[in-house]
């Protein structure tokens, strides 16, 4: 079968890996440089002849070596502002109309790329007869610097450029994916962490309507890393001041070297975080509130978290594990707002008595940052009559003496069927039960993309839709099972704490 495919913009020469064809580094928008810096993405420039699509394109501007000390796999591609590329894996550019799965990577809207080996789409394409697309989008200052208040009308959309890039990639899929053996009317978007926050935001954005039919949110929701316009303006002011750019000085804004601007922003450390901005135009209101009003009532979804999400962040910031109970609580209150005393007591008496205090109290962070948004998203979708399947990932990695447990991002290689990728065992360990858990999740994601329902014969029992009666969730782990309302006690404690 031919690896040369004709798109609307020109011909692409791909490659083949056993039974799967791939096209990499495909431009889905113009390079967002010069006058287009901080502007919504524009359609790509057409080309003549055949463009080589056998190697990945540059990744978005981002800090070096941030991926948790290399735990999450490294990308070797160069960094550039010219980064709006996507990658495709397909069983064949043969005129068949296969379900399409579009992956949006995580990384706190700060780092990451669609070319990380963990997100290789070969297994999905080979095992599921689906077409997989992974994308890059603008990150950090380049994707989420809200300049409307400092530079006027022309920069209204600048705080959401990264999300608008994702919409541009989804439009490209609508226009071109048939040529790669995909069905533009059967698109599932899926993402993890900031990628799931992106999915949650896309569900609420008028511009994204009709570009996908289903969604999977792994460890994130439309409440994650979200900024109000006022907060985003404040952050933008700090970044510009640090970079020596005066409000309104467009020349300096557009000509400061990308690396210099990035370093100025990074030097501010955790004072500045990035994410979608409720700017009133591109993102009219809070994504989860939009779901409450029915913005995505026709979208079926899978949504879930890992059991010990926040433990991963002890890798980037080991001080979490060294603080006293009082210091920990002070820090948690600063990060996520005041935590009622009865809630603190609940967590202190949960789990194994021998567990260190930090393990117990980090569950507050897991709930506030990840679980709460998941539950609100699921509830509002169910109220609107949409089908929702909920899960929790419980497999605990044995690495680092087991202290990470079932941490954030651990499910990724299981979902992608990529446990064999180099370096994965440094994160997941090599316990034999990994294979079965991976099969259960990988096939559930495929079944959902194909049939709109994640059930398949490798699951231990029927995975029921989430409803207000049972609030059932699939627990993926050494002995996967369905559990009724696994988050119930925790949710009730928080509800009571809020009322008192």
UniProtKB/TrEMBL annotation:
Q: Name one GO molecular function term.
A: hydrolase activity
Q: InterPro entries, alphabetically? A: AB_hydrolase_fold, CarbesteraseB, Carboxylesterase_B_AS, Carboxylesterase_B_CS, Lipase_GDXG_HIS_AS, Type-B_Carboxylest/Lipase
Q: Does the keyword Hydrolase apply?
A: yes
Q: The Carboxylesterase type B domain covers which part of the protein?
A: 3-489
- Give the UniProt keywords, A-Z: Hydrolase
Q: What class of enzyme is it?
A: hydrolase
Q: Does the keyword Repressor apply?
A: no
Which E.C. number(s) belong to this protein? 3.1.1.-
The family assignment reads: Belongs to the 'GDXG' lipolytic enzyme family. Belongs to the type-B carboxylesterase/lipase family.
Q: What is this protein called?
A: Carboxylic ester hydrolase
- Originating species: Parageobacillus caldoxylosilyticus NBRC 107762
Give the classification, highest ranks: Bacteria, Bacillati, Bacillota, Bacilli, Bacillales
């Amino acid at each position: 079968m031919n690896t040369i495919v004709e798109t609307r913009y020109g011909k692409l020469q791909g490659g083949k890996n056993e039974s799967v064809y791939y096209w990499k580094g495909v431009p889905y928008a113009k390079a967002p440089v010069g006058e287009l810096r901080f502007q919504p993405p524009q359609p790509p420039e057409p080309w003549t002849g055949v463009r080589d699509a056998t190697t990945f394109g540059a990744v978005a501007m981002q800090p070096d070596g941030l991926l948790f000390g290399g735990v999450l796999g490294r990308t070797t591609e160069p960094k550039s502002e010219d980064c709006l590329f996507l990658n495709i894996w397909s069983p064949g550019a043969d005129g068949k109309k296969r379900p399409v799965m579009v992956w949006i990577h995580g990384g706190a809207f700060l780092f990451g790329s669609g070319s990380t080996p963990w997100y290789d789409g070969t297994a999905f394409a080979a095992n599921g007869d689906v077409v997989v697309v992974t994308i890059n989008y603008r990150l950090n200052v380049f994707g989420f610097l809200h300049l409307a208040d400092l530079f006027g009308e022309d920069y209204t959309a600048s705080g959401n450029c990264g999300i608008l890039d994702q919409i541009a990639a989804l439009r490209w899929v609508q226009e071109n994916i048939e040529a790669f053996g995909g069905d533009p009317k059967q698109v599932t978007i899926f993402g993890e962490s900031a990628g799931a926050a992106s999915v949650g935001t896309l569900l609420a954005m008028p511009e994204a309507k009709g570009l996908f039919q289903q969604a999977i949110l792994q460890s994130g929701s439309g409440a994650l890393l979200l900024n109000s316009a006022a907060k985003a303006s404040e952050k933008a002011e700090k970044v510009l001041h640090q970079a020596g750019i005066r409000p309104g000085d467009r020349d300096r804004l557009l000509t400061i070297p990308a690396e210099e601007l990035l370093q100025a922003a990074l030097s501010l450390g955790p004072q500045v975080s990035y994410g979608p901005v409720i700017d009133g135009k591109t993102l009219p209101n809070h994504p989860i509130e939009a779901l409450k009003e029915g913005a995505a009532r026709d979208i079926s979804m899978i949504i879930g978290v890992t059991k010990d999400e926040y433990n991963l962040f002890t890798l980037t910031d080991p001080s979490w594990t060294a603080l006293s109970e009082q210091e920990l609580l002070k820090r948690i209150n600063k990060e996520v707002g005041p935590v009622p005393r009865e809630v603190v007591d609940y967590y202190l008496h949960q789990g194994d008595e021998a567990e260190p205090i930090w393990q117990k109290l980090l569950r507050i962070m897991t709930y506030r940052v990840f679980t709460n948004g998941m539950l609100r998203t699921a509830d509002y979708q169910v109220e609107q009559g949409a089908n929702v399947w909920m899960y929790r990932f419980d497999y605990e990695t044995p690495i680092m003496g087991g202290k990470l447990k079932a941490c954030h991002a651990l499910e990724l290689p299981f979902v992608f069927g990529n446990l064999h990728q180099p370096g994965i065992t440094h994160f997941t360990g090599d316990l034999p039960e990994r294979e079965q858990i991976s099969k259960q999740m990988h096939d559930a994601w495929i079944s959902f993309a194909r049939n709109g329902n994640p059930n398949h014969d490798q699951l231990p029992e029927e995975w029921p839709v989430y409803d207000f009666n049972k609030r059932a969730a699939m627990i993926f782990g050494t002995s996967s099972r369905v559990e009724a309302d696994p988050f119930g006690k925790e949710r009730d404690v928080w509800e009571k704490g809020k009322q008192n």
